[in-house]
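queue> holo job accepted (flavin-adenine dinucleotide)
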Amino acid sequence: MTEHAVVIAGGGPTGLMLAGELALAGVDVAIVERRASQELVGSRAGGLHARTLEILDQRGIADRFLAEGQVAQTAGFAQIRLDISDFPTRHPYGLGLWQNHIERILAGWVDELAVPIHRSREVTGFAQDDTGVSVELSDGSSLRAQYLVGCDGGRSTIRKVAGIEFPGWDATTSSLIAEVEMAEEPELGIHRTPLGVHAFGKEEYEIRDGKVVFGSGGLVRVMVPEPHVGASREPTLRDLSEALVAACGTDYGVHSPRWISRFTDMARQAATYRKGRVLLAGDAAHVHSPVGGQGLNTGVQDAVNLGWKLAQVVERTSPESLLDTYHAERHPVAARVLRNSMAQVALLRPDDRTDALRETMTELLGMDEPRRRFAAMMSGLDIHYDLGEGHPLLGRRMPDLDLATADGPLRVFTLLHDARPVLLDFGAHGGLDVTPWSDRVRSVDAEYAGTWELPAIGAVAAPTAVLIRPDGYVAWVGDGTDLGLDDALTTWFGPPAAA
Ligand SMILES: Cc1cc2nc3c(=O)[nH]c(=O)nc-3n(C[C@H](O)[C@H](O)[C@H](O)COP(=O)(O)OP(=O)(O)OC[C@H]3O[C@@H](n4cnc5c(N)ncnc54)[C@H](O)[C@@H]3O)c2cc1C
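queue> job finished
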């Protein structure tokens, strides 16, 4: 039986990101993926929000995505645009990039990190004991791991076999999406009718002056509401044609579909993200309507929260209890995504009263403070892990400041490329002693003369030091003393090495 420290079921965006994080930390990790290649049928996610771009920037790979996508103001609430161009981040925008490209670029990175991917195989079951997990594969073989992570999507086998509840709300809306040929070209763009929202577009597009300009020729991408919710079989061309006729009065001579798929607004979340040696991340842990474009982003950020913690537990520098902070921090984040996506679905209902409510919300979100709050939520820039009372930076994302160091100018995110913790000391040089953790924590003396500003919060007092976790969140803030530093180092990076 082949052994790995960690086996990841599912090599979608979440599984790939987690594999990269674990490999960076030197952990022996392997992915088991049902698909024969990274090719993706269907369009799914349309891009990345600002915080995900920052996360990728923390690993030095954001440019790979930026080079292929369309930078634009993509944050929105129930299709009400929210401009983040004034936000204090190096990426005050979103990136339009289809999921197949996102996955291809992530898979390229994971390949460079030499993570083995067992393709064309499914995880069919597992059994965990005190020392590890035996993972059964569909080809009859099995793997042994210390930990198994289910990144296997909304219908997660791992979640089901683990017996983890998936409570939530059944679907109230259902839509078909497809890529097709049409005898007549429909009017491209988003349309609202009494039946709901439908849209036509093309795979190729550019964003010019904030407007989407579709490529000419090629297949048409369709999204159209279905008249009934709860279909139990795969959608057909006939279903698509009927839905188009109901919404538009014509099916535009639809034919030759490349693919047809369905999504709903079902909203469910795993009751626990961990059961012993089995963890869940991404769609396996939470599903909801795609409105607002948060699913893939949340999954990738789950992976970045879990990766370094799992690595430290596997390496035995931290106790297993560190893994419980993964659920404690990430469950509330996805619970909020479920809540806001349900609110958005409600605001998109096609009736006059909801239209009036949407107009009211549009007015409200046109005001500066509500706009900043909602935009920070939708872009993921306001995420705040509850690490107790203290400076506003505590538990929030570390800004990517331009530092002056003994080695010259340096961006904070550059210090995070290798996914290791960093102590930035802005005070009296050499004042903070992390010697007992020097095998794990990098200490950098730095100067920063600018203001400290957080999205949606504004200016905050300049700290004298910050302890930054590998995921880019602040674990401790100094105010001129080292009060609490040893505790924070022990909590997050394990007990001090014996002298
Ligand atoms: C129409 C639509 C539009 C969307 N738009 C957006 C958007 O704009 N922004 C956004 O952030 N999100 C969006 N999403 C959501 C996004 O697609 C998902 O949240 C994202 O794909 C989740 O990634 P994942 O890796 O967790 O799961 P998946 O992408 O579902 O990956 C799971 C992987 O596991 C594999 N697998 C499954 N079972 C097994 C098994 N037993 N063994 C081995 N492998 C297995 C699958 O083949 C797959 O590769 C959209 C979704 C839809 C449907």
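queue> The first strand starts at residue 2 and ends at 9.
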